[in-house]
Amino acid sequence: MKELKVIKIGGNVIDNPEALDSFLDKFAALEGNKILVHGGGKVASEMLKGLGIEPRMHNGRRITDAETLKVVTMVYAGLINKNIVAALQKKGCNAAGLSGADCNCITADMRPKEPIDFGFVGDIAEVNAGAFGMFIENGIVPVVCAINHDGNGTLLNTNADSVASAISVAMAEEYKTSFVFCFEKQGVLYDKDDDSSVIPVIDKAMFESLKAEGRVADGMLPKLENAFAAIEKGVSEVVIKHAGNLDKPIETKIK
């Protein structure tokens, strides 16, 4: 079975041009089949404010009304996505920037309006593994943003961690798939204030203990929940690490 890496980078990398360029150097140098999934960073919020639209969030998730959808689509699927693709082309990595609507790669269902109305936010319904495979088998690296569609002409904003996890699971049927979360920490930390306290391996029992002790919380919880869901659905390996360590064995492996 051919191998594939699905790598997710967050807004903290997107927002730092030097960190992004360094990460893309390492990503371009990775051999073998790969897919890059990216988040949005602060650019959309800055642009919204510039247009007189106050960004609205709930528990760290963006509330996406009709005007906000226009802006995040322009920023995520346009400005950020195409800048990453252009940078990869410069580095000799042939890439194609994709939203879920392109080639019908990802469909999503609009999130129910209760208990919180998130507006044009989608939860993933289906990933078209064949479409991604078409790019990969032709030597093209998909660069995927978190804008998807409902199959009926409506675009939807989707959590990028969820997009990366869903792609990993879908591709695991045809590829031995590794899923790599890249963010601003060295890995999952036993002590959130000590960057050297990386936990090398976490299984489900340890995850429950860490939650009970309050050592993993907030934004780390959905990352780990997505990680375990991916493992349970056939992904071979899930790793959480610093974007700057893509080429180094400093990481937390999920078992």
CATH topology, by name, is Carbamate kinase
CATH class: Alpha Beta
Number of strands: 14
Tell me the quaternary state: single chain
CATH H level, superfamily name:
Acetylglutamate kinase-like
Question: Which runs of at least 5 residues are low in confidence (pLDDT < 50)?
Answer: none
Notable traits:
alpha/beta, globular, Carbamate kinase, eight-stranded mixed beta sheet
Verbal overview:
The chain is an alpha/beta fold. It has a single domain, classed as Carbamate kinase (3-Layer(aba) Sandwich), CATH 3.40.1160. It has 8 helices and 14 strands. The strands form 4 sheets. The protein has an 8-stranded mixed sheet. The longest helix has 25 residues, at 66-90. The radius of gyration is 17 Å and the shape is globular. The model has no long low-confidence stretch (mean pLDDT 94).
Summarize the structure.
This protein is α/β, with parallel strands linked by helices. It has helices at residues 11-14, 17-29, 43-50, 66-90, 129-137, 160-171, 204-212, 220-232, and strands at 3-9, 33-38, 57-58, 61-62, 95-98, 106-110, 122-127, 141-144, 147-149, 155-157, 176-183, 201-202, 237-242, 252-254. The protein has an eight-stranded mixed β-sheet with strand order 5-8-2-1-11-13-14-12. Strands 3-4 form a two-stranded antiparallel sheet. Strands 6-7 form a two-stranded antiparallel sheet.
